[in-house]
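Task: sequence in, structure out. Protein: Sec23/Sec24 trunk domain-containing protein.
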Amino acid sequence: MAVRATVSRFPIDSDAQEASGLPWGLTVTPFAAKDENGIGPACGSNGHLLPRCENCYAYFNTYCELDQWAWNCALCGTLNGLPSDAIARYSNPQSIPEMSSSFIDLELPLDGSEEEMTQARPVYVAAIDLSSSEEFLELTKSALLAALEALSPGSLFGLATFSHKIGLYDVQGPIPVVKNVFIPPDAESSLPLELEDAMPLLQFLAPVETCKDRIAAALETLRPITSWGRSSGAAQGMDGVLMGGRGFGTAMEALFNYLGSEFGSTFALARVFAFLSGPPDYGRGQLDTSRYGEQYASKRVDADRALLPEQTPFYKDIAAIAVQSGVCVDVFAVTNEYTDLASLKFLSIESGGSLFLYSSTDDSTLPQDMFRMLNRPYAFNCVLRLRTSTEFKPGNSFGHFFPDPQYENIQHIICCDSYATYAYDFEFADNTGFAKHSGDQPVVQIAFQYTVVVPPEGLSNSEMSSSSRDKHTLQRRLRIKTMQFGTAKNINEIYDSVDHEVVLSLLVHKVIVASLENGVREGRALLDDWLVILTAQYNDAFQLVPYKNGNKSISSQIDITFSQCPQLEPLPRLVFALLRNPLLRFHEEGVHPDYRIYLQCLFSVLEPSSLHCGIYPTLMSYSTPDQVAYPRHSLSRAALMTSGSPIFFLDAYTTLIVFYSSTADPSIPFPPPQECLLRKTINQVKQERSITPKLMFIRGGHDDATAFENYLIEEQDVDGSGFASAMGFVSFLDDISQSVAEYMNT
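Result:
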């Protein structure tokens, strides 16, 4: 569990917090194996015996004062008695995790019998769009063959297809058999037949270890539904013209209900991989994609605002069915046509899954992403709870979870991998703030309760009976991290303790929320205003501008680059880059609404360093493929020209580019050799990433360098004509300086 705060020294009260101009909060990556310093938790068992405060329900931790019979809660100060079993345990503190570390991970007893817990097998279902092309199906087959290699023995796999009908495959016999259920074309009708009646679920779900070859054989039989093949079931328009045939919504709803019958007995979590090649246009949940082609400007409508909300609650509603059925949905959209991900995204983000978007089949990393996703550990049925000491409390929470309907500050996460990150901001409970002369420090405690599936090889022989050697076991665990923070005596101490990457994370969450509620223009305005106010507060705090009301000449005296405070220096660049990112660029600039939604979903789960890389890419230079010249450059042509280096490596999180300058010595091998330092760096970056980045090699003077030059945003020529059609970084700073002067004068 990695936790990072925007400031390591908290503001003393609400006035100090407001005067700083900074967001106050933290990010947490609960299922990360190590903490933010690379240290793992102290592990143990009997998590249910961990003492809890009878007032605030916080867990006992190393910051609590302990005497022989009682302990003081570090969060609320309540004196709690110790039960007799705890007194006996704590008499030998060296062997007790909660006595030795503030970061612990304890096993909890499971509800239910031993038999039930060993029956829980991982279940995976692929739902494939047949209203597609041969290329799409070939890519999907490659991805699923990669997935089959990543699945652990004992897993169950189901293969389904959808078009104007749902196809269920039985691969447990000598040859694959498919049963079809036709989908009614209108948006109101349900299926004429339950999927369970078409094929019993346990016939549909095949054991991977014995049926892998037959699953692969079934995949080879898949063909796109041609207009001939679907004319019998698809809706006929005027003059018999085919009107559609991608019944995605009906298929998803039926699959969730189908799987739900075995939730809690055959499986504890089922993952559905939905492969989609275009918008749902048939049956329930069909979407009107004509709204993308509308001329919003002529109607005086903000296109960005019109295309960001969902057009139907259908997918949000069936995501709730998925959650109740123990199903996590990953959506893989391979399409360059408008698919309205704004409506579809709820399927994945509300069920704990991921949303992937690939604009074409040619260079798609879908097979690598599937393999990578299934190869990493994940937790499910998770509950995340953040508690604070009494002077402050959590405000907003951000991330792909759903809040508990009954209790405050409890979030439920259906499925959580080691990359998934969530954010909170804080506010003071009242006007008092933290006591200036008290020895009590602000405390934050994060508790994460989760379940993991332990494969048979993960258990010791003593834990296994002979009958359970091929079965998986569920383990319920409780991970707790308790942190104590200092308080800042003045604003300088706040500024000196800033973590700019966490500040960026909270800003990105806030502008995404503002964009979804009020449009992209509002999100941009929020960001701009924030930087103006922060700059003004900083200049005021350091008394850098001897201004008077109405003094128009103060803009030249304003320190816009935060030269007195190194921790704040990166922020103007990060805000500039965020404003240039497709997340906040306008519809009329050519930003596809589906790509914007994809970025919102991706950026909402990235930990701070990865998000920094996605917003302001890392650019480093090499003098040879084996020698780094400079570890970091600004994203400008001037930086490239003044460095004189022949090789540049740009990491934009989703894309990696190796660029050889046109003046590079021809004797330097291109592309870089496999064993060189640059290649090793690339491989390490790819290995540590949650998605597979696209890798490009560009030779200046020989290849089209547009893809690389588009990232040089500080002197942006977005139309490639050589004339700046977007504001560069220097002009941006001038504009902010003028706005700060106006703000300080008023």
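The longest strand covers residues 443-454.
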